[in-house]
Structure formats: C-alpha cells, structure tokens
Design a protein that fits this description.
This protein has 307 residues and is mainly alpha-helical. The chain is built from 14 helices and no strands.
C-alpha cells in the first residue's frame, strides 16, 4: 500500500513538472498549427474561391523554386559544417584537461550570445573592405569593394557562415557536457588496453554520445530550414532587394503580410512542418534515443580497442 502511494506521489510530481511544458506546447505549438491548417481553405487574394488549392498555388509560385534552391544550398553547407565542426571541437576540448579550458569555453559561448540581428551587422562590417578588421585578407583576394561580396550568388555561403558562428559555440559546449557524462572507468579501460586518443574518440566516445548527436542534428536541420532573420534584415536594412523572398520563411511572411494571402502562408508553413515532423518521428521510432541515458559501443569497436 505504501509503495502504491509513493508511486502515485511520484507520478503526480512528474506531471506537475511536465505541465508548464505541455501548456506551452499546446498554446505555442499545437494550437497555432491547427489555426494555420484551418486558415488554408479560406478565400484569399491568390485563391478567391478558397479550398485546399492553396498548396498547389504556393508550390507553383514563381518564388518557391528559387527559395527551395537557396534553402537546400544553405543547409547543404550549414548542417554538415555544424555537425562535424561541433563534434570535432568538443572532442578536442575533452582530450586534455588544463587551466585554459574555462577560457576556451568562454571563447566558444561569446559568439553564440550574438543574436541573428547583431550577427548581420557584425558580418557586414567584417566583409566591408573599408571597415573590416581583416581588410588585409580581403585585399589579398583582390576584394576592394563591398559589391564584390554582397551579391545574390554569394548569399548561400555568407548566410551559412553567419548562422554557423551564431550557433556553433552553444552546441560545442552542449556536446562537451555530453562527453563529461561518459564513465571514467570506460575511458581508463580503453587507455589501459592500448587504445590511442583517436581510437578512444571514434570508437568509444562517439558511440556513447550518439543520442546527443542525433538530437543536435534534428534541431540544426529544423533551424536551418526556418532561416529568416539574417536574409530578412539583410534585404530590408543593408542591401534592399538582395534577398527578397530568399527563404521559405521570408516567402511565407511576404504572402501573409505583403499580399494578404494568409491561406498560402499557412499552406507553406504546413509544408515546412512536414520534414521537421518526419525527422522527429524518425528519431523517436527508428533510433534508441529515448531508451536509455547513453548510446552503446558496437561489439567490433570493443574488440578493436581490446576492452
């Protein structure tokens, strides 16, 4: 009887702690999605008769194809760069303990504290030959005018760099924290059995933090798909027209607030939700991310290091 009461008490505490998140999820996640879904079939300027043709109209919009190309190009640079660089830097930070480590962690977190709006201004100065602190490097590549850099064909690379430096620092520290959860006994056993630093990192550490890497990959993918602040500020505040409807979120914004086509904007938002939702479901049902606290080491990896 006492165990039953304790079990009910534990469940009550769990639901109490979970309730703020569930409320936020409902009011700022599920409810807006439902409202957007109900908005799609309503009549609009682009779809006077209403109906679910809004999806077809949005996909055939002349701006949809270029936005798709831009976002895929951006993510093709941003997502792999984030994953490989972050994991590599976290592993390097974890290799050796020293008094300088806290200063390195601070060096990683400071750029991440810069918001997207500030990042645009920072990178505008960096890439402005007359103001840049790296003007010598720019002159080496014969870049003497900002117009040589700020061109539409270069935006994929520029925005990927902006987003990378704004987000990488946080994730380096998160992955470094995940590495600290690895048992020192496992690492010591690998060292005693002759595993090199490289083997320990690749064969032991990476499998044990694989769930954290998967989690990061999903969020980085979703964040990259929804890029908005950087191109929008660049388009409206620095070089007018250079990034008009450059991304899906910008196109959705223009449809809703510039053209009054809320149905089309909602349809595009739902289309953006689908890949992120499928990715999350894939992580939940096709991986063991939620099965335990850590990942597992493959048998062949254990045999290689001799554990």
């Amino acid at each position: 009887m006492a165990k039953t009461k304790h079990y009910k008490h534990s469940n009550g505490a769990m639901y109490l702690m979970l309730s703020p998140y569930l409320l936020l999820l409902f009011f700022f996640g599920i409810l807006p999605a439902l409202m957007g879904l109900l908005e799609i079939p309503k009549p609009s300027m682009a779809n006077p008769n209403g109906g679910w043709d809004a999806f077809k109209i949005v996909v055939h919009d002349f701006r949809f194809g270029p936005a798709l190309k831009h976002v895929l190009g951006f993510m093709g640079i941003f997502v792999p760069l984030m994953i490989f660089f972050v994991i590599g830097m976290a592993l390097m930070l974890d290799i050796k303990h020293s008094a300088w480590k806290k200063w390195l962690r601070m060096a990683y977190i400071v750029p991440a504290s810069i918001s997207g709006a500030v990042a645009v201004l920072v990178w505008y100065v960096i890439l402005q030959p007359t103001l840049s602190p790296i003007k010598g490097v720019l002159r080496y590549f014969h870049i003497t005018e900002s117009s040589q850099i700020w061109q539409q064909q270069n935006l994929v690379y520029i925005l990927a760099i902006m987003a990378f430096f704004a987000a990488a620092g946080n994730w380096i520290l998160i992955q470094y924290g995940s590495l600290q959860s690895i048992s020192t006994e496992v690492l010591e056993a690998a060292r005693v059995d002759g595993a090199s630093i490289w083997q320990t990192a690749i064969r032991i550490k990476l499998p044990l933090i694989s769930k954290y890497i998967v989690y990061m990959s999903v969020l980085v993918f979703a964040g990259g798909l929804q890029i908005f602040v950087e191109p929008q500020l660049l388009n409206g505040g620095i070089y007018t027209g250079i990034a008009d409807s450059w991304s899906f979120d910008q196109l959705s914004y223009n449809l809703a607030f510039m053209q009054g086509d809320f149905g089309g904007a909602s349809a595009l938002s739902i289309l953006l939700l689908i890949p992120s939702l499928l990715g999350a479901l894939l992580v939940i049902f096709k991986t063991d991310m939620f099965e335990g606290a850590q990942g597992h080491i493959k048998k062949k990896d254990v045999e290689i290091v001799g554990i």
